[in-house]
Amino acid sequence: MASYHKSSEGRDIPCKPVSPKQALTIEEAMCAHTMAGAYADFAENKKGSLEPGKFADLIVWHDNPYTVATEDILKLTVDHGGREGGSPG
């Protein structure tokens, strides 16, 4: 969650500001942490998006991460988290 927050806030992990041109939108940060991560792992056919037959590390937030202020992302609470779906092999 911290890297998601920092990438959308335009800061690196040690919290140093980066150029506003390098900051990601919330949508870009979410994609970078899901679909792009699976693609980089050569596993986009097994994970990275919610589709039948794919594995998913599922998080249900109490509030919508797309609508809260960037500075409040780290305050989001998780109602449910777990690993679901997929088929062996």
- Residue runs with pLDDT of under 50 for 5 or more positions: none
Number of helices: 3
Largest sheet: 2 strands, antiparallel
**Overall number of domains:** 1
Percentage beta strand: 15-25%
Shape type:
flat
Which percent bin holds the helix content?
10-25%
Keywords:
24% helix; 3 helices; two-stranded antiparallel ribbon; alpha+beta
Polypeptide structure, described:
- The chain is built from three helices and two strands, in the order αααββ.
- The protein has 89 residues and is α+β, with helices and mostly antiparallel strands.
- It starts with a helix and ends with a strand.
- It is 24% helix and 17% strand.
- The model has no long low-confidence stretch (mean pLDDT 78).
- The chain has one domain.
- The chain is flat, with a radius of gyration of 14 Å.
- It has a two-stranded antiparallel sheet with strand order 1-2.
- The longest helix has 8 residues, at 2-9.
- It has helices at 2-9, 26-32, 35-40; strands at 55-61, 78-85.
Chart the SSEs and their pairings.
Elements: H1 2-9, H2 26-32, H3 35-40, E1 55-61, E2 78-85
Antiparallel strand pairs: 1-2
Short description:
It contains three helices and two strands, in the order αααββ. The chain is of the alpha+beta class. Strands 1-2 form a two-stranded antiparallel sheet.
